[in-house]
Amino acid sequence: MAKKQETDKTPPTRAKKIVRQGRRPLMTDWHDPFLQVLRETGMVSRACQCVNVGRVTAYRHRDNDPEFAERWDEVLEEAVDEMEREAYRRAVLGCPKLKFTKNGEPIYDPATNEPYIEREYSDTLLITLLKARRPEQFNRPTQQTNVNVGVQVNLTTSQLREKMAESPAGQRMLERLAG
């Protein structure tokens, strides 16, 4: 009878448990796959669906496990960085777009006989990026209020400027007129 060859068997890894006072421990074997999907999508609900865990459970784990909460925040930051890179690409570098006739036929470049491709840019994304990066310059208030009080004012231009400089709203208006 041949002797069985001994193999080095490591015990299976167990899910990390978070012990909470007076309650059952929380099983965390879904944390890594959850965080991977969260990194890829930036969406908690999508990550929960992919690992078959409810949103309430995910947030409960986040509340009870500071390490998990920290990793959650890190992967969300990475997801937002990726979204920002994509927004920049679409706004500044543009996206190639095939051009078609009204009948749906592709348009070909007469010089190369290749399909005609134009780069399409997103002004909306560009404005959004500028507002995020330089809010003091690009997030100017757009709401205007016009009030007709029916009073005739007889002031010189310099007198009017002095009166306007007495109030914060008047100062802002003077700044806008100057710049």
Which geometry do the CA atoms define? flat
Distance between the termini: 97 Å
What integer is the average pLDDT?
82
Per DSSP E runs of 2 or more residues, the count of β-strands stands at 4
Estimate percent helicity: 40-55%
Spans of at least 5 consecutive residues with low confidence: 1-15
Q: Secondary-structure element sequence?
A: EEHHHHEEHHHH
Q: If strands are numbered along the chain, what order do they take across the biggest sheet?
A: 1-2
Q: What does the largest sheet look like? A: 2 strands, antiparallel
Class computed from helices, strands and strand pairing: mainly alpha
Hey, roughly how much beta strand do the residues contain? 5-15%
From the alpha-carbon coordinates, what is the Rg to the nearest angstrom?
A: 31 Å
Per DSSP, the total helix count is 8
Structure report:
The protein has 179 residues and is mainly alpha-helical. Among the domains are: 19-89, no CATH class; 94-139, no CATH class. The chain is 51% helix and 7% strand. It contains 8 helices and 4 strands; from the N terminus they run E-E-H-H-H-H-E-E-H-H-H-H. A hairpin with a 7-residue loop joins strand 1 (17-18) and strand 2. Helix 3 (55-64) packs across helix 4 and helix 4 (66-93) crosses helix 5 (123-133). The longest helix is centred in the middle third of the chain and has 28 residues, at 66-93. Mean pLDDT is 82; it is low at 1-15.
